[in-house]
Target: MACPF domain-containing protein
Amino acid sequence: MDSTIDSQHEGILPICTTVGYTVNLLPQGVDPFDLSAILESDHKYNFLKHADTGEEITVPGSTRKYWLPGNFEKHETGSTTVANSLACQTAIELASTLKVDSKLAASYLGFSAEASAGYEYSTSFKKDEFIDAAAKLPTWKPISKDLKDFNLVTDIYSAFAHFYSRYGSHLIQEAYMGTRYQLKVEQNETMEEEMKGFSTNIKADNCNVLGGDAGKAGTLAHLSPDDADAYNAAFKEWQESREEGSTDALLHIRVMEIGSFLKDSYVKSQLAVADRLSSAWSYFKNFYTFQGQISVEKAYQDDVIKLEITPLPGLVIHATGTDIFTVTQTKASSVELTPNKDCSWPHLNVTIVAPDMPVQLLFTEPPRLGYWYVTRLQLNQCGPNHFQTNYNTSDVIQNVRSFSDAHGSEVIGKKVAN
Model:
């Protein structure tokens, strides 16, 4: 879908090319700290019409006139400079904080999801294509680890996944324009292992310059603060370039899940679509990407290590990162790892994309007579053992309430008698 505005007026306010459109926020692979990636991950769908009635306006710092459609509201935020301090929080911790503080979200993140109904757009749909397509979606079925009709439910899941990819999952209701400067500060005293774990959760836009003159912003973004004179001079030049309103950048969007948005409609067909989409989204929104590794104390050539998780629609296991093992993807939810030679403490990277819900785990390897060993799946390796998420191989099925829960075993090895 192209992103042209359905309006006869030229010079429409640029932010209107964002508000009223949809984005796909399926959690797999979506980084809320990277706004540009969110907006570019799929083609935006023009969900709402932009009214031909409206008014001409100017933005602070610019004499250029823009057209503001009649079904939009513009709120002046002024030119206030706001300083925020980020006290050593990882991206995951910060995201948790932002869930309960949308004002903080506007300061730090690229988007926030809120329950407010916003404006009533139920009579302003660009076309009926979205509603017609949603109405043709199959009825959603509940999904759990005890799923019996896997193929049927997977087909239903795929239909909704294709719909979200085509039409988006969330409507952009508000957008914030301005300029932003963020400096990433590292704590030199931190242990190397701790810093490594911390840095994997810090996203690149925590050290970013948005808005202002593009050339001056680029210079500032690449200078080291260690050269104080050059850095301060570059910062001043960039700061002064922000005075022209046309150099503002898109900093933040506020979105709402489309099913929740449609629940405020008075049109029966739209209410039916709302229930169908919200039921599906309750499953889609619970997907997370868990990254870790499998480490083997002693690997023997041609032995087969198996990792299998309850098959659920959308659940995927990937194992990569070493030539010591031959990786066989037997199913989306299972892999087999075969060492190409005898070796000690090899490991390979593992990524599990799964809904945060109870599943069963089968993690096995051939027994070795009379030998103490450990083969472990490590999904969270930070902190003391009781805070980590570790699973040892076992000849029995293991119940997993959530891969995000701590799961530390006191047994670091086992001895096989037969």
Notes: The two ends are 62 Å apart (CA to CA). The chain has ten helices and 23 strands. The chain has a mean pLDDT of 72. Residues 150-167 form the longest helix (18 residues).
